TrEMBL record:
Residues 112-162 form the F-box domain. It comes from the Eukaryota. Residues 55-89 are annotated as: Disordered. This is F-box domain-containing protein. Residues 78-89 have a biased composition (Polar residues). Pfam families: F-box. The lineage of its organism: Eukaryota, Fungi, Dikarya, Ascomycota, Pezizomycotina. It comes from Pseudoneurospora amorphoporcata.
Length: 311
């Protein structure tokens, strides 16, 4: 291994001294930046672990080393709460400590963390994977989710995610080819549109010729194809009203039911009375003539029940 080149003044004895104010400020700024980035990553991991139901490790134990500043060196590195951080970083640290205390309380009580207790950043990441219909369903659950579902920030995230997923979806082997889309009538070319228009025009021309060649309504009435009510007849003020064939069929069905009801009433009132009268007349004639063995037996039992018969 080649020896390192000597720097100027390397042979002289160097004395160690405390850093100056400028060096201390630069080191503190770098420490604060690193700690804020580390805390943000730790907070996001903690929120994801809470959403999945796992128990996260305490934030203070994981990030204790980056918090140690110059003030921590004076006390032996035992300060868990940094004293030389900016107010924003200190707020993040206090939030992580409160989150640790709440996690400890949840572990003791056995309750689960609700979805609405998660930070908005995590909820935005979760909602960005949902479709519009799923976002609409989620917006009906609570006011907080409704506000997040209708936020422009969420829709910008969804557009960014769609922009990233679109190239992979277009090059996917499961995506149908253009001939398949044309065969399924999903993608229409100019030729397909022109052929559809020509088919409609040919169908209309064919139908117009068939309608012109069909017989008149009077001929259809003579052939008993259409009822007479469907053709206008008469002159002057006594012109007959034209009725549609479907209405004519309904009208005739109502008339048939009306005739049936009349026949039922006539049978119940007239025909039953006539039948009873005829039966009585036949029975009287049989009694007068003494016809039938049954008549003699009935007469015998009637006389016996009335006391006229002999014992």
């Amino acid at each position: 291994m080649a020896p390192l080149p000597l720097q100027p003044g390397a042979g002289h004895r160097q004395m160690w001294s405390w850093p100056t104010v400028e060096q201390r400020g630069g080191d503190e700024d770098q420490l604060e930046g690193n700690s804020s980035v580390h805390l943000a990553s730790q907070l996001s991991q903690t929120a994801l672990l809470l959403a999945s139901g796992n128990t996260p490790m305490p934030v203070t134990e994981q990030s204790e080393a980056p918090w140690r500043g110059w003030h921590g060196m004076d006390t032996g590195g035992m300060n868990k709460t940094p004293t030389g951080l900016s107010p924003s970083t200190a707020t993040v640290v206090r939030f992580s400590e409160n989150r640790e205390e709440s996690n400890t309380g949840l572990q003791e009580t056995g309750h689960h963390v609700q979805l609405t207790d998660l930070p908005n950043e995590v909820l935005y990441e979760i909602l960005s994977h949902l479709d519009v219909c799923d976002l609409f369903s989620a917006s009906k659950t609570s006011h907080h989710l409704r506000t997040l579902s209708t936020s422009p920030t969420l829709h910008s995230l969804r557009l960014r995610r769609a922009r990233l997923l679109l190239p992979s979806s277009l090059t996917s082997p499961s995506r149908p080819s253009l001939p398949d889309l044309i065969r399924r009538s999903i993608f229409l070319t100019n030729t397909a549109l022109i052929s559809r228009k020509l088919a409609r025009k040919l169908a209309s021309i064919h139908l117009a010729r068939r309608l012109a060649a069909r017989p008149a309504a009077e001929q259809l009435v003579e052939r008993c194809v259409l009822p007479a009510e469907c053709v206008p007849s008469g002159t002057g003020t006594k012109k007959k009203v034209v009725v549609a064939p479907a209405l004519v069929a309904k009208k005739r069905a109502v008339e048939r039911e009306r005739v049936k009801d009349g026949l039922r009433g006539w049978i119940a009132e007239v025909w039953v009375g006539r039948v009873r009268e005829a039966e009585g007349r036949v029975r009287r004639e049989e009694e007068e003539r003494g016809v039938g063995r049954v008549w003699r037996l009935r007469r015998f039992w009637e006389e016996l029940s009335s006391g006229k018969g002999t014992a």
